[in-house]
Specification:
272 residues; eight-stranded mixed sheet; alpha+beta; Endonuclease, Chain A; 2 domains; Arc Repressor Mutant, subunit A; 50% helix; single chain
Amino acid sequence: MPPTSADATAPTRLLGEYFDREGARIEERLRDLAQARDLLARVHASSPASPTPGVEPISDEMAPTVVQRLIHESSGLLRNVVMVVDAGPAMDDATMRDNQEWVANGNVQRTIYPAAALDTPQGLQWLRSWATVGEEQRLLPDVGSEYAVFGDVGAVALARWGEIESGYVLIRDPLLISTLAAYFDLAWEHAHTVPFAASHAGDERLVELLGMGLKDEAIARFLGLGLRTVRRRIAALMAIHGVDTRFQLGAALASVRSRPTAPTAGTAGRTR
């Protein structure tokens, strides 16, 4: 017996569909992450007597110089995954200046940040400063590790996946470079965009940030709104959709977004 219209919109059915979609996305990211971890295991498991071809440890002092050289050697897309915004080669003044000039000159740099970067005014200011020069930015709840891929000429990554204290390695091996780039591109597809103007902060964006686990204070800083305004908008959305919790609100809005939109008058049958 086919489901009735009431069955199709039942809360339990909508929640089940929401869990299925989110579960599939999480499983895909976990598979990607496992592949990246296996990749970097090849890098740092090698002994000094038999180093991995195309991989060279670099000291903290030399890391900024290496990054600057790769910036000037590379062309095309610069892919960047950041764990923290207060450490690493990017903090070097000369490196930051060269990098921002490179982006301002029309080159494309995409960076994925962890959602926690929005939890402090310093982190938010960092994102704003790079967005101003033209960096394309997205957010993930957890980025896992840190690395940068400079076109197809090289990459700089943590020596051990996810360990900031492990130092960095320079990667020249084409297979490793292309694998890191492919992992970045998959993560980019699943990441959230980073708008900074309150005028662009619709209710969908507000709920998206809630779904990333951000606190009200971080959401308010991110959207450029007052804390009371954010909480008032959340309460209003919950009342409109007849839900009692923020999780239920996310599920309700997810079901609304998944419904097909009826064509407006005059658009049916229109071709390009």
